[in-house]
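Example record

Each entry pairs one chain with its bound ligand, iron/sulfur cluster.
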Amino acid sequence: MRITADRTRCVGSGLCAERLPDVFDQDDDALVLLCADEVPAGLRQDVEEAVQRCPTEALSLDADAPEH
Ligand code: SF4
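Structure tokens for the complex follow.
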């Protein structure tokens, strides 16, 4: 399952990076950076919660992304 982040929507709240530092980081302007493109094993529920809790809906999961 692929993670995408729309940095134009991110307001730098830091909720995602605080909760899942192995998946999300922030740049010098506090905007989200992805540490992983795919949901790491065992973190799917946590990532789904982070996506739901993002205040600006900047994060999304794409279950239909083609396998590489
Ligand atoms: S939770 Fe949303 S708004 Fe906050 S840093 Fe993460 S992507 Fe940006």
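Strands lie at 2-5, 24-26, 32-34, 59-62.
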